[in-house]
Design goal:
The protein has 562 residues and is of the alpha/beta class. Helix content is 52%, strand content 8%. It has a 5-stranded parallel β-sheet with strand order 2-3-4-1-5, covered by helices on one side. Strands 6-7-8 form a 3-stranded mixed β-sheet.
């Protein structure tokens, strides 16, 4: 490795010095080289793309190519004084300006005044403005005219990570080149070359962790590699890289996902414990888990996943082996759970619990039966049920189960002063409503609010000229019924209903008062529960249902009446 008093970081030491060394931006290199060879070099270029993908390096290479003493060619010689000065950043004809710190209108005016002069000993004066989107609006306006009609000896090269922040008037005056994120395989290949140059022993999996940490940025990957080398020196282990960079070992992700598909809750929770022990951020882990399952989904969904996924050959082979025994639908269902968990983690007080719950849900998901298998089972079920009796539902879909208890209650209507409502479960009113039930229906037709209160009252006594109604002590309905206005309104309605003067008397019913008949609301609830129980018995004992349970291996968990 490099030794000495002055250490040059890898990102600077191995910075590309020619178009051939520019990794991952071949489309830009080829276009610029063709423009130089054909003599069609524009006066202004705009390089856009993520951080650390080679925008400023390309600008320097372009400057060296245009000013190289050996002549304008598609590659600089990197040996002449002009190339060396540009490489060192000491050229008097190539200005590198930071747009963030020189963003005022006065800075641009000074630049505009200086470029009028011919270059001192080069072909062109080249202005490189990095992070050009940081210029102020006035600075852009001051630059417009010069940018549109610059002197013949001036070339502008702008670099930015946020081109959408540039005025349209600037964009229209530049040739734009979009730099791509560098693929994982190309970053690993470059890191392998540098490791060889620095005489460092490191595995491909460790280089993969470093490259993935860069997230498509060559500079970020080299910075991470520098950090690893400072910690590990000449021999680098996978464990050291994972610990130092705070990344999850791909093997742990594979083990946890395998435990999920096997239904192994113990293994899943043990894996989360291991993640927590190394102090890894749970949200970051969840994002890596999402990426892992996304890779599995792509592998199960397309024929050539290597064209879509940014993975090494070894990683792709490992994922393909894991995906052999799972379907795309199984992966997708679990991926949905992890995406929801990742959103919740942004506001969670217990991030580990959120991830554990999502993984346990994914682990305990019941397997889906393929549709073709379901169709075959339904055919078997239809065959077995050809000669079985039908369920007790009429053509309208309404249950026709008799209600003997309701009939029994209605028959007690002969007792003096006692009135009972018939079952209100039936969807259609019948002609056998009792006097009390008819009176409540009549009130409902005139005033729904009063009718709703009366439905919770028990008819204690009904005599010519008197209706006595009981409500549970301490209830809201008792309070509402004791209101003078309510009594007056109901009394008027009773007079209309009975065609004679009728007094309404409200009484409080204490808990446990057995002589009070059921209110209409209580009767409805009781009859509905009774009907549902009878339906459940009918359904559970029906031959078709029993055959369905046998064929599908299922049980009836709930029966509802509509």
């Amino acid at each position: 490795m490099s030794t000495g008093t002055h250490y040059e970081v890898l990102a600077r030491k191995y910075r590309p010095q020619s178009f051939s060394e520019l990794v991952g931006q071949e489309h830009v290199s080829r276009t610029l080289q063709n423009a130089i060879d054909s003599g069609r070099v524009a006066h202004a270029f705009l390089f856009t793309g993520a951080r650390g993908v080679g925008k400023t390096s390309t600008a320097r290479i372009m400057a060296k190519t245009l000013n190289c003493e050996t002549g304008v060619s598609h590659e600089p010689c990197n040996n002449c004084p002009q190339c060396l000065e540009i490489t060192k950043g000491t050229s008097t004809d190539v200005f590198e300006i930071d747009g963030a710190s020189n963003n005022g209108v006065d800075d641009v005016r000074d630049l505009r005044d200086n470029i009028k002069y011919l270059p001192s000993h080069s072909r062109y004066r080249i202005i490189i403005i990095d992070e050009v989107h940081m210029l102020s609006t006035n600075a852009f306006n001051a630059l417009l005219k010069t940018l549109e009609e610059p002197p013949e000896h001036v070339k502008f090269i702008f670099a930015t990570t946020e081109p959408h922040k540039l005025p349209v008037t600037i964009l229209s005056r530049c040739q734009r080149f979009d730099f791509k994120r560098v693929t994982l395989t190309k970053i690993i290949a470059r890191l392998r070359f540098i490791a060889g140059e620095e005489k460092v022993a490191i595995s491909d999996s460790a280089l993969g962790l470093i490259a993935r940490k860069g997230d498509g940025s060559m500079r970020d990957s080299l910075t991470a590699f520098d950090q690893v080398l400072a910690f590990c020196s000449d021999t680098v282990s996978d464990e050291d890289v994972a610990t130092l960079l705070g990344t999850i070992d791909r093997r742990l992700l594979a083990e946890i996902s395998a435990a999920v598909f096997e239904g192994n809750s113990q293994g899943v929770l043990a894996g989360i414990k291991q993640v927590d022990l190394v102090g890894y951020n749970m949200r970051q882990f969840c994002q890596e888990l999402i990426e892992h399952f996304r890779n599995l989904l792509v592998i199960r969904s397309v024929k050539k996943p290597e064209e879509i996924l940014d993975l090494t050959a070894a990683e792709l082979d490992e994922l393909q082996k894991q995906s052999l025994h799972v379907s795309a639908l199984d992966v997708q269902r679990r991926l949905t759970l992890f995406l929801k968990a990742e959103t919740e983690l942004a506001y969670a007080s217990f991030p580990r619990l959120i991830v554990e719950m999502a993984l346990l849900k994914a682990t305990l998901l019941a397997p889906l039966v393929p549709i073709q298998e379901l169709i075959e089972k339904i055919k078997l079920l239809e065959t077995a049920a050809v000669h079985t009796p039908s369920l007790p539902w009429d053509s309208a879909g309404v249950a026709s189960v008799p209600n003997p208890k309701a009939e029994s209650r209605t028959s007690t209507n002969e007792q003096p002063g006692q009135f009972y409502a018939e079952s209100a479960v039936s969807p259609r009113p019948t002609g056998s409503q009792t006097d009390w039930g008819c009176f409540v229906l009549f009130v409902n037709g005139k005033d729904l609010q009063h009718g709703a209160v009366l439905e919770h009252g028990s008819p204690l006594k009904q005599e010519p000229g008197l209706i006595e109604i009981g409500f549970p002590a301490g209830s809201y309905y008792l309070t509402a019924a004791q209101d003078a206005e309510f009594i007056a309104d109901v009394q008027k309605l009773a007079c209309t209903f009975t065609d004679r003067d009728t007094v309404i008397r409200i009484k409080s019913i204490e808990s446990g008062f057995a002589e009070a008949p059921l209110s209409l609301a209580e009767k409805k609830k009781s009859d509905a529960e009774q009907l549902l129980e009878e339906l459940k018995r009918e359904v559970e004992n029906h031959p078709v249902i029993k055959e369905a349970e046998r064929v599908f291996g299922c049980t009836v968990t709930d029966v509802q009446s509509f």
